[in-house]
Amino acid sequence: MLRNAMSHLLGARRSHRPGRATGTGTVQLPLPPALSASLGCDAVGVPARYGFRLMSHLPRTGCVFADADRWWWIVPAGSDLDLDWPPQVAYAKGAFVPAVRPRLIHHPDERTPYTPPIPLFLMVCQVTGVTPSWAPSGGERAVSTT
Q1: Any bridge partners for residue 76, and if so which?
Q2: Distances from the Cα of 76 to the Cαs of 11, 62, 106, 140, 145, in angstroms?
Q3: CA dihedral sign, ordered 96, 99, 103, 106
Q4: Sequence-separated (6 or more) residues with CB below 8 Å from residue 109
Q5: What is the largest CA-CA distance in the chain?
């Protein structure tokens, strides 16, 4: 994760302008301007039915966006490195998400927009019934416990 974060810091910085659409049918989640996103941003999308449960059990929650189908959690860029996110999860690099009108539903009290990725990963695995897996890139996917 640190290697990927460093490459983002040393490379070109991503724009965090609100709602910038792309030709692929995605929109970039607009971070509040007062928050510092110095590590870059990715987003983890979980089915909306798990949203409240995840938020109530996480020790710290950053910016969370929602649409009808998914809740999107802002995480530092590269939070997918060596983490085997469950199949129900959508991981969006650069926080470019396939959503029509996502809205900010949680703004953190701190000056950082991030939800810590490891607690989020463990909670997502728990609510989706998947055994956590830290498989190296290209390794096996997580195995369902159900």
Answers
A1: 41
A2: 15, 10, 17, 23, 28
A3: negative
A4: none
A5: 43
**Cα–Cα distance measured from residue 96 to residue 60, given in angstroms and rounded to the nearest whole number:** 23
What tens-digit pLDDT sequence spans the chain (146 residues)? 333 333 333 332 333 334 444 556 889 999 999 898 899 999 999 999 999 999 999 989 999 999 989 999 999 999 998 888 999 999 999 999 997 789 999 999 888 999 999 999 999 999 999 999 876 555 455 544 44
Q: Residues 119, 122, 65, 97: is their CA dihedral positive or negative? A: positive
Tell me, letter by letter, the H, E, C secondary structure of 68-89: CCEEEEEEECCCCCCCCCCCCC
